[in-house]
Amino acid sequence: MHEKILLFPFGGNAREALTVIADINKDKETWDVLGFIDDNESLRGREIQGVEVLGGRDILGRYGDAKVLAVPGNPSEYLQRRKIIDELQFFPQRFATVIHPSVVCSADAEVGFNSLLTPNVVINQGSRVGNHCVILPNTVISHESSVGSYSCIGSNVSISGSVSIGEQCYIGSGVTVKDGVTIGEGSLIGIGSNVLEDVPAGEVRAGNPAKFLRKI
Q: Which domains does the chain have, with CATH numbers?
């Protein structure tokens, strides 16, 4: 029996999720995607791969038996992710976790609820991905590392062993993080950066090696 799911909002992450769900369903019919939810009225009725934007979050009550994957956020608004998701006021059980069949996840690794793991992600021994996270394709999270809740990790990111990434961070695509590094809550690391030292909370860093650009 399929489990019903709604994708929120109609952004890049939700469209990535639609592709992940299609691949999951090829292996085993698991999810019945009812549609996208988005508060932008100009998107109502828009379709992608036959899945329509049904309306804003005000209609979520009509679909009380459906799980929700809430994956807002891009580099310009990633610090709003916690607020947007928490405003839904859902119990954890209402959220879905969607993991692509190609993901390699160690038996002792943990992945929280309302998280999206896309193709070829690797999560190694003893690592933890928090709640409300997005991990994009080909990213490797090495042993005993942690990704805090509400964080987004881009594609082709290499997170070495014993790294700690705080809550509500944004790690751009192609970033490499040296073993043992801590990246503080609410920080943003620019595309292609090499992070060789700890990053205090609320900083933007970029470059090779990553250098301080500004406080948020």
A: 3-94 (3.40.50.20), 98-200 (2.160.10.10)
